[in-house]
Amino acid sequence: MMSAPADLRNASTSAGKSLASEVLNSPIAIPPMPDYNGRLLAYTATAAIIVVGVLQGAFQQWNLWLVAGALIWPHIAHQLTRRTFLRNSPRIRQKMLTADCVIGGGFIGCIGLIAIPSASVALMLMFSGLIIGGIRQWLIGCAFMAATILAFFAIVGPADSFQSPLLTSMLAIFSTGLYICVTAFYSHQQARALMLAKTQIQSQREQSIALSHKLSKYLSPQVWQSIFTGERDVRLETQRKKLAVFFSDIKGFTELSEEMEPEALTELLNHYFNGMAEVALRYGGTIDKFVGDSIMVFFGDPTSRGQREDAFACVSMAIDMRKHMKIMRQKWRSQGIKTPLEIRMGISTGYTTVGNFGAENRMDYTIIGKEVNLASRLESLAEPGEILVSYETFSLIKDRIMCRDKGEITVKGFGKPIPIYEVVDFRRDMGPNRSFMEHEHSGFAMYLDSDKITERERRSILSALEDAADRLRQEEDLARD
Predict the structure, then answer these.
(1) For the chain, which domains are there?
(2) How confident is the model at residue 280 (pLDDT cuts 50, 70, 90)?
(3) Are 340 and 352 in contact (CB under 8 A)?
């Protein structure tokens, strides 16, 4: 003889514990009927059935002692589950229900299996078992109840008549109906509260996702993902890792900033950063920061494909950025920007300190170390359109990328001169089999990357080139005439 279903807090899933707990603890969520109230209702109804049954002669006189037990037990059970070691039991409700089944079975055996009162008590117990513990608890409860009924029935013996007086039967039926209706009402209220809580959880989940995506704009996607998946804690900590570090800036940007209005300059710079960021993310780079017209990217953290692959991805990104810059430069020229903007880049590979730097309430995920300084120095020494790499980077990529020896430089923090190399292109793209071609004159620009062209685009490009060639031949014929 137990209460309605378990508290909604125990039904929250592990995937949304904190969010569900916050919602379910709000005033909107309606709690289920407490165990104490449910047990008190059931045992009070049973006590009333005993009193009426004794007065009508259906039960033996000594059964009145059971009334005292029925009225006292709910309070004892409440104290046991709240003030003793039993409160720490994760399945205390099922255990207490099993005890109720034993008590109920004893009562049914003591009254000699009189039909309607016995069925009334059994129904209340089975209903509670299904609601609280499902089929498993129902089967366990029925088994304990049946065993207790048989034990007490063997001791007390059968009643003189298995039929009870009308008033006793009516009271038993009414008590059972009242208990089931009250319990069902609380269960219905719980279901409504659960649906409302589910809606709130979904709404807050969507808001959290939207907010996390907004916040992700301020972090590199790899860092953001490692934080939101729980792989990385947001705390001040660093580690030593071998990374490939990339720096770039725009040659001629200072002169351009003096010629353009701030709004137009901002639009141009954002267009440049957006294009370069897409290239960096395509190769798996972690974008560290944008400073003025400079970009800092590193490879090897938070995820790494190995030193050789990280260095190759970094240099491949730089080559792709150089190609992409030519395409953007042509677009800017069509918009009236005639200043020739060129990108220059520097790459270094070595051990750096990477992690969260700053204060507990404001930190920055970045890298420090002499390799960072070397990459920055290489970038400042590079000519427009040039990619300079350190010797260690060269040693990791030389089998797949053609480089040219540029001599040695002296860098603060390094005891010996540093050999540097200029990146020419992928070895696979060298010679007649190269996939990228460029040709640029005043009034004409062509940038061809055959690896990225589909069959349909190829036909369209061939048609455009043929039209352009016919136009040039006609103008040449007219010039001769």
Answers:
(1) 8-211 (no CATH), 242-434 (3.30.70.1230), 438-481 (no CATH)
(2) very high
(3) no
